[in-house]
Amino acid sequence: MDLEFVRPLLDWHAIAPEVVLTGVLLVVLTLDLVDGERFRPLMPTIAGIGLLATLIPLLTLALDGTTRELFGGAYVVDDFALVLKALFVIVGYVVVLLSVDYIRDGDYYENEYYTLLLSSLLGMVIMGSSRDLVTMFIALELLSIPAYMLAAWRKGGWRSNEAGMKYYLMGVFATAVMLYGMSFVFGVGGSTVFTDIAEAMSGPETTALITVGILFTIVGFAFKVSAVPFHTWAPDTYEGAPTPVTAFLSVGSKAAGFVALLQLVFVAFAGREDVIEPLFWILSAVTMTVGNLIALRQTNVVRMLAYSSVAQGGFMLAPFAVAGAPGQLAVESVVIYLIIYAFMNLGAFAVVLAVARKTRSGDIASYGGLINYAPGMAAAMTVFLFALAGIPPLAGWFAKFAVFRAVIDAGTVAGYTLGVLIAVNSVIALVYYANVAKEMWFNPVPDGDETPIPVTGSLGFAIGLTALATVVFGIVPGVIGHFSEISVLASPL
Amino acid sequence: MEATGFDAWLLSLIVFLPALGALVMLVIPGRREEVHKLIALVASAAALGLTIYLLTIYDYDAGGGLQFVVDESWIDVINSRYIVGVDGLSLPLLALSTAIIPLCVIYSWNHVPEPGNAKAFLVLMLILSTGMNGTFMAQDLILFFVFFEIVLLPMYFMIGVWGGENSKYASIKFFLFTLFGSALMILSFLALFFLVESPETGEALRTFDMRQLTDVAGAGLSRAAALWIFAGMFIGFGIKVPIFPFHTWLPDAHTEAPTVGSVILAAILLKLGTYGFVRIAIPMLPEAAEEWAPWIGLLAVIGIIYGALACLAQTDMKRLIAFSSVAHMGFVMLGIATLTSFGINAAVFGMVAHGLITGMLFFVAGSVKERYHTLEIAQLGGILKQAPRLGWILGLAAMASLGLPGLAGFWGEFPAILASYNPAEGLPVETFRTYMVIAAIGTVFAAGYLLWLYQRTAFGEPTDRFAGEKINDVVPTEWIAWTPMLIGIVALGIYPNLIFKITDDTVSSIATEVAAAVGG
């Protein structure tokens, strides 16, 4: 046997976004080493510009339009990957905007913060392309490990330490379960590349080995997307972590989990709907219902958003429950949901950050009378909340609509019942979103303090950007529909 | 008939001019209230002006098909298009909707309710206007859905911020009820999209185009599927109407809403539901409609009697008017349930008449509240002595509401009752004749509670509490806002053909198609 190492042929254009992002990461790291104090104020700027620069190769790749496969199909750059990579990079950019003042004004390590943020983003960008168990695992670890540290970034506060610790322990546990599952999958498939696995696994009969392999692998990611009953870390971590990190986790990290699930379910396990569909039906139904019901009782806005994001995850899991439907609408609907969710949720967190700069509180009651002294902020928050609730003409309606469309298209009883369940849950969700709106619009200012909120440029820009996206995507949803019309994951066999 | 040139822009302008006005107002600081009032008035009046122009150039002899149709791409990825158009069914409701908003703006000129903030109040009103106008002309299910939903947020805030003591509860109740209905409605729309087949090729149509879906009338649906889909729409539209037993949000919302909010709610928002039945549910699923019709009729007459009895038990004037809405919308639904041209014509007339009359009653109630600071019927009395003109206007509106011949209310109720003597072929005749009798008894109740209301509030001497007080009579802004409505009530009462002439062709073609689908 010839064991000589053959250097794989690299398509530099295909991995250009990753290369640029790594470059930015190294620049930030090096500047920190050379003279951390002097370069400190520049860090967010460098990170932000670096992220915008990463969009350039993504754009050239999109214009080029060809699907590129590297490493024997383990790393694929196609429309699906590009759309999601762009989403991750934009999410990263908005998170940097949210972080600038928060991290500078608090007692935080600043340079390292951006280094870790960029590392985690790199992991997400890689996740978009990984069609192979090992690549996917590496991407997952690269995005998770910095996130564990970021969650504990408020080093003085025990809540933040608890947040990081909980996230870390749960994450590691989930990873272990997932690896165990992957080993089964590898055992059956004889390969780590998804297309090969799909070929080996899709037979007329399912075996216990296959079922357990799929189950464990999915459970690993179910932790990542905080699906019930694997969600218990999320509220504590979200509440304890610095708020920009919470925004990052609830949008970026969750999206990465969903991207992984999409690739696993629709490429690797493509023939195994008999296992996938009931599993996800239950996950989705339980996640949205439990998330919603607990969110109803929250009095802290971040915890409310945490449970709301659990519930939103349930909506996103629904299309997986009809993975076998011939219409191929499931992938599209999840991607649409991820894009819209990213903007509206980041926006909501941006307002939470801005309001907390004045009130120093996360209580929903502290939003009382916001419309009187910060009308712009209250209006923006109203937009985000009702977008999350799915009220037209704000973007959220189209996300929900896409999910409805996917489950109804299946034409099965399971699909219809899930549709009705989503409908009922949307109504429940309105109660807690409207509750915050009620505080802002109907109630008096709690302590009578009507001094305006000091909004900084970057935070204001982030709010404006996300609000604009939320409104525009709602009125002309075709804009996103265009991006999400991706056939990539369709039928790899 | 596709529109060209300026005509192609006409409908879109009617929808989006108010929204444009709202946008302009958003960038102007809220301190300059007069400017905001002026912009709101100009934007809403422009929409009304264009609608009047539309009424003059609309071809009344074209057989009731859609006119001024615009069909542009909107959300390609889901095959939903921006299709708008008007026919005899939409036109009267569109006219009503565009007419009410400027009148409400005028009424609000000196009556911005507590806690003030004219800018936000008027912006919400204009957004409402966009949603309502759009609903009445949308010819694509998703477009219809979006416009239908746009009204939720502004109305929620209008009730919640400017409403009475219990407004927080009332506003969220309104929002939750309607949202629940619309979530089921959108599921039904999607099921239509995926399941309805083209009769020629047998393939799924996969369209949201309401014209096409009406043409094929539910072809390819199994009986069970059609019944379920109709059930989803029934809940969606029924909550909005509201049909008994989904009506419980209405008295709360009406009672707590500011005057203008109540007027818009009663005059236009409720019609979105009944319009949905006539425009979407019945023509697209005629066979399911036929099976559902007796049940709709039953709920309608229950609503008539229940609403009337509830009215008799009310001590609050506004709440009484709100329950009278439940009863009146029962007549509208009964007319629709007959599935006959006669009944549906009556229903459309009833929608417009109820809009004008109940809108008027809420205006008067608002002005009474402003003068007496209470709507407790027991506290009021002798309005005719203290403010005779206000008293007479209340009298006229109450007479119209109880269905006095010669005023608009009569032509909505009487033909609806008559139509149920002879419902569409295939419907159980005895059942509908029973409904007829019950509904007729309902009109007696209506006379009872309205006359009783009038007697207690307007006749006699003012109660001790207000005995010595000077009460202002109707002021100029009220005259300007009310006169068109009063003229409308009288004119439609004397010459009902103003509406029937417009609606008849369209409604007949709907009824004929239903009959054909059910028979064949």
Task: Provide a brief overview of the structure.
Chain A has 493 residues and is mainly alpha-helical. Chain A has helices at residues 16-39, 43-64, 79-105, 111-127, 133-151, 158-189, 194-201, 208-224, 233-240, 243-268, 273-295, 301-317, 329-359, 370-373, 375-389, 396-409, 413-442, 457-475, 478-484; strands at 68-70, 75-77. Chain B is mainly α.
Protein described:
The complex is a heterodimer of chains A (493) and B (520). With 493 residues, chain A is mainly α. Chain A has a domain at 273-493. Helices cover 73% and strands 1% of the residues of chain A. Chain A contains 19 helices and two strands. Chain A has helices spanning 16-39, 43-64, 79-105, 111-127, 133-151, 158-189, 194-201, 208-224, 233-240, 243-268, 273-295, 301-317, 329-359, 370-373, 375-389, 396-409, 413-442, 457-475, 478-484; strands spanning 68-70, 75-77. In chain A, strand 1 (68-70) and strand 2 (75-77) form a beta hairpin. In chain A, helix 1 packs antiparallel against helix 4 (111-127) and helix 6 packs across helix 7. Chain A is globular and about 70 Å long. Chain A starts with 15 loop residues before the first helix and ends in a 9-residue tail after the last helix. With 520 residues, chain B is mainly alpha-helical. Chain B has one domain. Chain B is built from 20 helices and two strands. Chain B has a two-stranded antiparallel ribbon with strand order 1-2. In chain B, helix 3 runs parallel beside helix 14 and helix 7 runs antiparallel to helix 9 (223-240). The longest helix of chain B is centred in the C-terminal third of the chain and has 32 residues, at 341-372. Chain B is globular. At the A-B interface, helix 16, helix 17 and helix 19 of A face strand 1, helix 5, helix 6 and helix 7 of B.
